[in-house]
Amino acid sequence: QVQLEESGGGLVQAGGSLRLSCAASGHTDSTYAMGWFRQAPGKERDFVAAITTTNTYYQHSVKGRFTISRDNAENTVHLEMTNLKPEDTAVYYCRANLPTYRTWGQGTLVTVST
Q: DSSP letter string over 73-99?
């Protein structure tokens, strides 16, 4: 089993930046896809970004502002978020797509103030 732990959330002013990290432990494998999702209060959990061995994918609203990257040596995926907007406020979750299951982290809260 793979366990995920997010970190790096916090309070930031609009226009600021944050870097989220997702550390994987357990039966890790650098070939599986990893993704970030977010859930704002009262809303469904939405896709933000994903990374595979060959590609990266982004939700339209974050393209150009967010960058997903992977450090295979550290079994960590990062989400670099710049030019943050109040509508980016949400709990951010990391997800791993393993061959037979998906697993989620507990989430980290990002709050963007005006």
A: GGTEEEEEE-S--GGG-EEEEEEEE-S
CA dihedral angle for residue 77, residue 81, residue 86, residue 89, rounded to 10 degrees: 10
Residue 111 neighbours by CB distance under 10 Å: 15
pLDDT tens digits, residue range 77-86? 999 999 999 9
Q: Which one-letter DSSP state was computed for residue 63?
A: B
What does pLDDT average to over the chain? 95
Q: Among candidates 110, 68, 107, which has minimal Cα distance to 85?
A: 110
Dist CA 105 CA 92 (whole Å): 9
Residue 37: Cβ within 10 Å count: 21
pLDDT digits (tens, 9 = 90+) for 34-67: 999 999 999 999 999 999 999 999 999 999 999 9
In one letter, which amino acid is 98?
A: L
Record the tokens describing residue 79, joined without a space: 């989400």
